[in-house]
Each structure stands twice: as C-alpha cells, then as structure tokens.
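Do me a favour: review this protein, sequence plus structure tokens, and tell me how the chain folds. Record follows.
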Amino acid sequence: MLYWLTSLSDGGDVFNLFRYITFRAGGAFLTALVFGFLFGRPLIDVLRRTQGKGQPIRNDGPEGHLMKAGTPTMGGLLIVGALVTSTLLWARLDTAYVWLLLFVTISFGLIGFADDYAKVSKQNTAGVSGKLRLAIGFAVALIATLWATWYHPAELQYELAFPVFKDVLLNLGWFFVPFAMFVIVGAANAVNLTDGLDGLAIMPVMIASVALGLIAYFVGRADYSEYLGLHYVPGTGEIIIFVAGLVGGGLGFLWYNAPPAAVFMGDTGSLALGGALGAIAVVTKHEIVLAIVGGLFVVEALSVIIQVAYFKRTGKRVFLMAPIHHHYEKKGWAEPQIVIRFWIISLILAMIGLATLKLR
C-alpha cells in the first residue's frame, strides 16, 4: 500500500525510499514486531477468558506437559495478524505472488482455527477430522499451484528445478500440479507436527523463511539470478516483504511463547506458516531446497510416519514417542535443551540450503 507513495516522488525525496525492497522489508519487519508487542497481551487475555481450560493436553504425552494445562491456544492469530497487516502495508499489491501467499496463509490459518476451536470447545485432542482437514488443504493447494503456474514464465511451467545442477529442469507435465500440492500440504502438516514444545516450531519457521526469502529475492532479480545460475521468476522479490512480516510477527509471538509459554501457537499458526513455506518454495521453483532448509520439519514428519507404519506392522515402536522431539523428552532431555538444539540444527540446514545457490 505504501509503495504507491512513490508516485509522489520526484526521485530525490523521502518518498523515493518506498521504491526499495530493502527499505520496505525493514518497515514490514518493524510493523509486524510492534503489532506483536502491542496486541500480544490483549489477545492472550481474550483467549484465556474465552477458552476457559485452554488447550487440552494429551494424557499419554510426557508428564511435564500436564503442567501446561490451562494455557490458551490459537496464538497463531497474533502471527498471522501481524504478517497480513505488514504485508498489505509495505508490499507491492500489484504482485500476484503476494496475494497468492496471503491466500495460502489465511486459508490454512482458518483450517487450523477450526481445528483449535473444536479442540477447545469439546476439550479433547481430536479436533476436526484429519480427512476433512487434508481435503480442504489440498483444495487450497490446488488453487495456489494453478495460480503460481499461471504466472510462472512459460519455460518454467510444470518444471522441477534441481539445486546444485545448473540449468537442469525436469518436465513433470501435469504431474507437477499434484507434486506442488503435496509440497504445500506436506509443509503445513510437518510444521504442525513440530509444534509440540514451547518455542520449538516458531524459530525454525523463521529461519527457514529467511532462507527462502533470500532465495525469492535473488530469483526475482535478473542480474542476481543470472550471476548465481538460478531460474529467473519475475515478481518474486516482493516475497521478502512477506517474509520480513513473518519474522517480525514470529518474534513478537515468541516473546509470549518463550518457556513457560503464556500462549500456544496452535494449528492456527502452524498450518498457516507451514503452508506459507510450501507456497514460497513452489513460487520460487525451489521445492527440493525446501526439504533442506526445512529439514527439521521433514524429520519430525518422517518420525511419525515411521512410528505408525512400524507399529502397524510389528506392534512395536521405533521411538519412545513420536514426533521425535517427544522421544528425546522421554529419554530425559530437558525441554529447553531440545528446543535450542533443534534451533541450531535448523540454522545449519538453512545455511546448507543457501549454499546450494552458489554450488552450481
């Protein structure tokens, strides 16, 4: 919205600053951060009053989690609110990819909100049917995938790009559509599975989003993409504004989610943010790199898949409890120890993912 102030500029005044993505990214970050600090406590107070007993806690989970009973959920509303507000304020609203990301984020946020509401109102951990959540999620992902494909350059439509290998593209044809849908829905649910300890999910999401945001910025510039040997996708540079809002809103939320958490992100936040990561990867043609920078989420999801499949086959468990962060809780690791070590792993994976930009 503020970008249109550039129409008042003669090229040498303060309005000219709004032409620069870096300036607007800084504005988006600060806007989202202030939003989080201003509305965090009032939102928590409202959630606490309306939810009563807060998010229901699993009886079969780690014993330490029973102490968290009464903590309100749906804290993802704070992140999504900050993200959407800052993006609408600072991004160029004539960019299709900005609206695509907002659509995916809000849509998955609504799916998560419905699930959180069902859990809180019924005071059980079942929530909305998993099949229904997946069905709606895939419908949203279908729209997003077709949307992205429509605006991609003709030579990149239905193509899968590979990191490290310069100019290597695999034409998936129409199979690219279900593949991209799986990336978006898979990312949303992988982040959702990771959100099990105070502060565990939000920092890796921010780390992965910064890595993908930088990739989007490079891919969206003809000069940088040519120098790095990347596939040029016009318009993706504005995604860095969205990412800046995500990081600012995420930090504002983490202020209240730091152990002991005053509020949980809930599915409202985890599905929204995970879906956003998947959508950025699809838009920038870096779906495979997402599996690297978001490797922690992949491991968390795989631990659940392995646990369920192995138990159905043998009646035994591979992990003491899945997702894998609960396994380490059962082994006696303290919650902050798990969280901080997982943050470190996320940062390492993000750096590896960024390194693929130059290794070509």
